[in-house]
Design goal:
The complex is a heterodimer.
Chain A: H1 5-13, H2 22-38, H3 54-57, E1 62-63, E2 84-89, E3 92-93, E4 107-111, H4 119-124, H5 135-143, E5 148-152, E6 160-166, E7 173-175, E8 178-183, E9 188-197, E10 203-213, E11 218-226, E12 232-241, E13 246-253, E14 258-267, E15 273-282, E16 287-296, E17 302-311, E18 316-325, E19 333-342, E20 348-357, E21 363-371, H6 375-383, H7 388-404, H8 410-424
Parallel strand pairs in A: 1-7, 2-6, 5-8, 6-9, 7-10, 8-10, 9-11, 10-12, 11-13, 12-14, 13-15, 14-16, 15-17, 16-18, 17-19, 18-20, 19-21
Antiparallel strand pairs in A: 2-3, 4-5
Helix pairs in contact in A: 2-5, 6-7, 7-8
Chain B: E1 8-19, E2 22-33, E3 37-41, H1 48-56, E4 61-70, E5 73-74, H2 80-85, E6 88-91, E7 98-102, H3 103-117, H4 125-138, H5 144-147, E8 149-150, H6 156-170, E9 174-178, H7 186-199, E10 205-210, H8 214-218, E11 223-228, E12 231-236, H9 238-247, H10 250-255
Parallel strand pairs in B: 3-10, 3-11, 6-9, 9-10
Antiparallel strand pairs in B: 1-2, 1-4, 4-5, 7-8, 11-12
Helix pairs in contact in B: 6-7
Classes of the chains: A alpha/beta, B alpha/beta.
């Protein structure tokens, strides 16, 4: 059955109602009401004008009503040794697949549904994610079943791996991953959000994450979107960076037929520092859209952003990066760089930097390049005996590696390096620096 | 070392080549035998760098006439990588920076590609490490250069040494050094020249493309060719280079 845009949205609104206690119930009701009003974004909307969601509208996404029983073996290749692991299957917490043994005192990694009584959860849930303005966030806020609650006081030495697994179902399904991270003052952690799919299913993963960094907190956030190639992924992440906090993010988009990731970082406190890395690596008919918004709302903020897109086949990659420097945000130092690699004549990349500065005494720079594989580098490698295909792969891999190698989890860096190579040829290149 | 009985590595006959439709090489003849060192000199625009790029197979240059054989093969029928596998090496005038690819990874990849071509075993990273440590000594390079991205952040001299390091690892039959001396200070020049000399055997050969005579003080050529207007207009021994140094190129151009 092939739907149109209105029918597709109506079908999403027919999702399974999830009952909650008092405060959340009200949020859910409000969110559903907003979703109805907002509907799918119009292509005329400035934030959506490059993004063709029409492949998504064809499907009738059903709520998930029964949960697949998975074993560790099913998700083996995604596991990160030594991590604190919270696993969700189609949006539902799977304690039997999770491993919280390395969580120490001060580190809470738990099912959100089980912690709704926590004051911190109530105070922060839905505070940052714009469910009143964004219909996907609104749908998630109404329909999410469970999510991750990460609360860090002190230092979490082991990386925290939040693994969202989508399974294959008979009919396309809608799943709603949710995550709330609270970093207390001077705390430190590495949080990996990992979106994977099993067995080539068609599903809509509509994910929402909120992260709060209090004074001098340091969060290393890695977001890996490696959904199935027929899936749809719409993600939103809102971050609030407190005084002198350090938020370092890596967002990767490898999978999904159509994917969108919106990252909104608000520099709330003076002297906060942000490092935003991004990489979209797509081929075939994939569409990957990354929208970032950085609000410098306090003085002396520092932000360094590097986003890369690699598009092969007839893929379409979009990067839109907005930097707002608000009144009063004196001494802001914000740099954005967008670098893009086109691997075929039919691939397409749109890159759009936007700076809005309402202040003097700021340093803001942005630059964007779109290019093909460097012909001189290609000739050089061929003159050293490498075939055309191998030389191209090496250069493409190197372009991507700059982002990957900065992830502070070696086993993940290695696994992602392999994923990139598999995506390119299935060939294993020896001696590539990853 | 000249040995008329040694085998011909490179035989170029009446080579014509153009870039963007403009003919640069207008009939070049050159024969290089195993064991020989050749220098090709000339003013800027004489075609000497074009000649080296055409031999290596640079895609910007179109061969419009003539023939070239390399190690018994039709050179122009081979892709650049096949020329490399056949034993041809070009040291680039402007070495390329490749961020994200380490020097050691590139060297090992290239080395193992040639090993496979020669029907020999590939070396694993540990075995290769031993080999490359020895080769580093040829150009007096610090091992820290191995883990750095290819030529990224290297000085001009370090880039040129890195080219010779690649030559040392790949052991080509014929190395073409395209202005390898440009941008080198006297110490670096000495190191590079010493490196090249130590790689010379009776089975391989070197063609140096250079503007200046000073490199030839360190790598002594058996033949010096002067290129002008896309042709080799004079061939002589090493004394020709000294004459050029003393008299300039004009007298030859007038004669041609």
């Amino acid at each position: 059955m092939s739907l149109n845009k209105e029918q597709c949205f109506e079908q999403l609104l027919l999702g399974k109602a999830v009952k909650s206690n008092g405060w959340l119930e009200q949020v859910r009701v409000d969110a559903l009401e907003r979703a109805r009003t907002l509907n799918f974004p119009s292509v005329k909307h400035d934030d959506w004008r490059f993004t063709d969601l029409s492949p998504l509208y064809l499907h009738s996404f059903r709520p998930v009503d029964s949960y697949a029983k998975l074993t560790l073996r099913d998700i083996e290749k995604y596991l990160i040794p030594g991590s604190i692991r919270l696993v969700f299957v189609d949006g539902c917490y799977a304690p039997e697949l999770s491993d919280l043994t390395t969580a120490r005192a001060g580190i809470t990694v738990a099912s959100l549904a089980n912690r709704l009584g926590d004051q911190q959860v109530e105070a922060n849930f839905g505070r940052l994610a714009p469910y009143k303005q964004d219909s996907f966030v609104a749908l998630n806020t109404n329909f999410f079943e469970d999510g991750a609650w990460v609360h860090i006081a002190g230092e979490a030495t082991a990386p925290i791996h939040l693994l969202q697994v989508a399974t294959r179902r008979e009919a396309p399904s809608a799943i709603y991953p949710r995550c709330l991270v609270m970093m207390e003052a001077s705390s430190r952690a590495t949080v990996i959000e990992d979106f994977v799919g099993l067995n080539d299913g068609i599903y809509l993963s509509n994910a929402v994450t909120e992260m709060v960094l209090k004074e001098q907190a340091q969060l290393r956030h890695v977001r890996v979107q490696r959904d199935e190639m027929n899936a749809f992924h719409i993600g939103h992440c809102s971050v609030e960076a407190g005084k002198e906090s350090v938020y370092s993010a890596t967002s990767l988009a490898f999978g999904a037929r159509v994917s969108r990731h919106s990252l909104h970082v608000t520099q709330q406190g003076e002297g906060a520092e942000m490092h935003l890395d991004g990489l979209a690596l797509i081929a075939g008919r994939q569409i990957a859209d990354t929208h970032t918004l950085i609000d410098h709302a306090a003085p002396r903020g520092k932000c360094v952003q590097l986003h890369k897109c690699i598009a092969d086949g007839s893929a379409h990659a979009i990067f839109s990066g907005k930097i707002n420097v608000h009144i009063g945000a004196a001494g802001t130092d914000s740099t954005q760089s967008s670098r893009n690699l086109l691997l075929s004549d039919k691939a397409h990349i749109d890159t759009q930097p936007q700076l809005e500065i309402f202040n003097d005494d700021v340093k803001c720079k942005h630059g964007a390049t779109v290019g093909q594989i460097d012909a001189d580098a290609l000739f050089f490698l061929k003159s050293r005996g490498l075939t055309e295909a191998r030389a191209r792969n090496l250069l493409t891999h190197a372009f991507a590696a700059e982002i990957i190698v900065r992830i502070p989890v070696p086993s993940l860096v290695e696994a992602l390096g392999r994923t990139i190579l598999e995506r390119m040829t299935g060939e294993r290149l020896s001696g590539v620096r990853t | 070392m000249i040995n008329k009985g040694s085998k011909v590595l490179l035989g170029v006959k009446n080579l014509r080549a153009s870039v963007d439709g403009v003919e640069i090489l207008k009939g070049v003849d050159l024969t290089v035998r195993a064991g020989e060192v050749h220098a090709i000199m000339g003013i800027n625009g004489s075609g000497k760098s074009t000649f080296s790029k055409v031999l290596a197979g640079h895609p910007d240059y179109a061969v419009t006439g003539g023939t070239a054989t390399f190690a018994g093969k039709d050179l122009f029928a081979l892709e650049p990588e096949e020329r490399a596998k056949a034993g041809l090496f070009l040291a680039f005038q402007y070495p390329v920076e490749i961020p994200g690819v380490s020097n050691s990874a590139l060297l090992r990849l290239a080395y193992n590609t040639l090993q496979t071509e020669r029907g020999l075993e590939e070396l694993d990273p540990l075995e290769f490490e031993d080999l490359v440590q020895e080769k580093l000594k040829v150009v007096e390079m610090d091992p820290s250069f191995l883990s750095r991205s290819v030529n990224e952040g290297f000085s001009g001299g370090e880039k040129k040494r890195n080219e010779i390091l690649q030559m040392a690892v790949l052991e080509p039959k014929l190395a073409i050094l395209d202005e390898t001396d440009s941008g080198l200070d006297i110490d670096a020049l000495r190191i590079v020249a010493h490196g090249v000399n130590s790689l010379l055997t009776s089975d391989n050969a070197v063609v140096m493309v250079t503007h200046y005579q000073r490199l030839l003080n360190y790598i002594v050529p058996d033949y010096v060719h002067v290129m002008d207007g896309g042709r080799i207009v004079r061939t002589g021994g090493k004394e020709l280079a000294l004459e050029l140094e003393a008299r300039g190129y004009d007298w030859l151009r007038a004669a041609a």
